[in-house]
Known about the structure:
This protein is mainly alpha-helical. It has two domains: 23-97, Orthogonal Bundle (Arc Repressor Mutant, subunit A), CATH 1.10.10; 102-239, GntR ligand-binding domain-like (Four Helix Bundle (Hemerythrin (Met), subunit A)). It has helices spanning 20-48, 60-67, 71-84, 102-122, 129-147, 151-167, 172-195, 201-215, 219-239, and strands at 57-58, 87-89, 95-97. It has a three-stranded antiparallel beta sheet. A hairpin with a 5-residue loop joins strand 2 (87-89) and strand 3 (95-97). The longest helix has 29 residues, at 20-48. The termini are far apart. The relative contact order is 0.10. Mean pLDDT is 84; it is low at 10-26.
Amino acid sequence: MQSGGPAEGQPSLEKGPVPAVGRDLFPALARHQTLEKSAYEDLRRAIVEGRFAPGERIVAASVAASAGISRIPVMQALQRLEVDGFVRISPSKDVVVLGWAPGEIRERFMLMAALELLCLRESVGKITPELRARLRALQKEMLAARSQDDVGRAVQADGRFHHLLWEAAGLPQVMHILETLWDRGEYYRLIMHARRGGFATESLAEHERIIDALDADNLGDAARAIEQHRLFGMKRLEETPQS
């Protein structure tokens, strides 16, 4: 009987050094994915904050050059943003930031209202005193920002207020949809509040009704307050000139 070694022509099963190309493969892939993720997050934030306005063209090569990266992760990031509804990419690869048509505003707000009511139902027993205190603190921050004519700060606090309510439900897929809907409307909310002379007092009053209902553990009143807040917000946005 022959001992141990591999038959002639067969690869050895003994452990040896991993080829350099194998060691480099996954770190390189991870670096590429990190670049794409960073490009996606930075471009999404730029659109949400209005640095790229609706109708404006985004030139992938210019973005890549300014970021010091290749065009490939930038285009992949833009393709993700197209799936999310932030941009449109033409067959010739022109990228344009999408705006909202009046009918789209209504549809998106109605969808948000329905999903927020779902979150509320799933939050039964999860609205803790600590969560109520954080909602109150954010309401105070919005009031302070309004008194200082700081629309951007008020809108950011408004976003955190609603995110707290969504998070309490513990529904990550619903949360992702709501976050995308919310971010798509950020630019328009900033315009709306600014052109109404500051963060809307009606919105603050609607928040108070939501918090009061939660404090009273009255799910029915909280649901009505959330639905009215979303639909009244839709009406305010529809009434605001966008140009």
